[in-house]
Each structure stands twice: as structure tokens, then as C-alpha cells.
Design brief:
Blueprint lengths: L4 E8 L2 E9 L3 E4 L12 E7 L3 E2 L4 E8 L5 E5 L4 E2 L9 E8 L7 H5 L4 E8 L4 H18 L24 E8 L5 E8 L2 H11 L4 H4 L6
Parallel strand pairs: 1-6, 4-7, 5-8, 6-9
Antiparallel strand pairs: 1-2, 3-4, 10-12, 11-12
Family: Belongs to the UreD family.
GO molecular function, one term: nickel cation binding
Protein name: Urease accessory protein D
Length: 217
């Protein structure tokens, strides 16, 4: 398959550096010169498509080669749209990544079975009641999920054979931030998008009087 994009990252002067970058329609790469601290040795690559999506007939294939000991962050636009197909034309998108020795591996290995990472920021005095409610709900949910099972006599059960308890399919935490705790941030990890939508739909239902409709309804 013909490549619409290719990026090669190697060590130059002891730092991760893009030594080759090629892209053509409908693909485009943006490589900012400075992201974060100058002491950080990482190359950021933003992948974009013209129009913000893929149309029928598009065939996008790109290849990344990450050299020994290099670090590269590959991101996408916020949401890649897939437009309605015309006739029998299909679209496809292929990504090939070659990692040399010492390169950082995919985040998928670290996420294990968790497919969704989300963060919700609740800020301002008008939604103080929702902040309090969400914090109470998160605390209750996680205390129930992470509680070590016990027998009727009150004795705690032992973990399974490999000394681990079953990982919960949904994990959430909440904390306050800002002057006088003006805001609340909720962090979520889950195995399915449906469970996150259901959580948000329930927790943010109190916003309906302010927004006119309930979010995620």
C-alpha cells in the first residue's frame, strides 16, 4: 500500500529528533518545536486530516520509525469524523510503527484491559451542589467496588491464587482544587465507553436546570 505519510525519529546530538517527515493529502503532520520543558527529550507529532475526517474512497497509510532510545508522542485531532460513504467506496486507515531498542512501547500495554480514560472538571459556585453529590457518589461507588470481601463471621477472604483481586471494570476518583475548593476534578478509567457514558449521564443530570437538557441524554 502506498504511504501517505512517513516519520523517522533518530538521536541527533543526544536528543530525539525528526530526521524525515513526509505527508500528502489527505494526511498532514504538525511537529511543534517546543512542547513542555526544554529538558524533556520527546518529539510530539500531531496527525491531522483535511476537513477533520475521512471520506469514502480515502486510503490513509502512514509509517513511523522510532530509533534507539528515542521518545515520540503521536496524537490525533480531537475526533476523526467518518463521513457517509458514497456507493460502494470504502475508506481505510493503516498505521505502522517500528520501535528500535530502548524505545517506549505502546500505552496499551500499560492500560491493561482499560479502554477509556476520562477527566471531568466541575468548576464554579453555581454547580457546588453537583460537586458535592459527585464526590459522595464516587466515594460510595469505589468503597463498594474495592472493599475486600468478607465471610458471614467477619473474616476477610483471601485473594485468588495469584495474590490478586479481580480488577474492577470501572474506577473513579475525585479531588478538589483551586481557592477554597472552588472546583472538583473526577478521573475515570473503564473497560467500556458505555459505562462511562452511563456514569456521566447519572452524575451530570443535575445540570439540566442550568443547560435546558441533561448532558449525555
Amino acid at each position: 500500500m502506498e504511504k501517505q505519510g512517513r516519520v523517522v525519529v533518530d538521536k541527533v546530538g543526544g536528543r530525539s529528533t525528526v530526521t524525515r517527515c513526509f505527508s500528502k493529502y489527505p494526511l498532514k503532520f504538525i511537529i511543534p518545536r517546543k512542547v513542555g520543558s526544554s529538558e524533556t527529550d520527546a518529539v510530539w507529532v500531531y496527525t491531522l486530516t483535511y476537513g477533520g475526517g475521512i471520506v469514502s474512497g480515502d486510503s490513509v497509510s502512514c509509517e513511523f520509525t522510532i530509533g534507539d532510545g528515542c521518545t515520540t508522542v503521536l496524537t490525533t485531532q480531537a475526533s476523526t469524523k467518518v463521513y457517509k460513504s458514497v456507493g460502494s467506496k470504502c475508506c481505510e486507515q493503516v498505521l505502522e510503527v517500528h520501535l528500535e531498542r530502548g524505545s517506549v512501547s505502546s500505552i496499551a500495554e500499560r492500560m491493561q484491559d482499560y479502554q477509556v480514560i476520562a477527566m471531568v472538571v466541575l468548576l464554579g459556585p453555581r454547580i457546588k451542589h453537583i460537586q458535592n453529590l459527585v464526590q459522595e457518589n464516587v466515594k460510595r461507588m469505589m468503597s463498594e467496588q474495592l472493599q475486600i470481601p468478607s465471610t458471614a463471621s467477619g473474616r476477610q477472604l483471601k485473594p485468588n491464587s495469584d495474590n490478586r483481586f479481580t480488577k474492577p471494570s470501572f474506577i473513579a476518583s475525585s479531588s478538589v482544587f483551586g481557592p477554597k475548593g472552588i472546583g472538583v476534578v473526577v478521573r475515570i478509567a473503564a473497560t467500556t465507553t458505555e459505562s462511562v457514558y452511563k456514569f456521566l449521564q447519572h452524575q451530570l443530570a443535575g445540570l439540566e436546570p442550568l443547560l435546558g437538557v441533561s448532558p449525555y441524554h
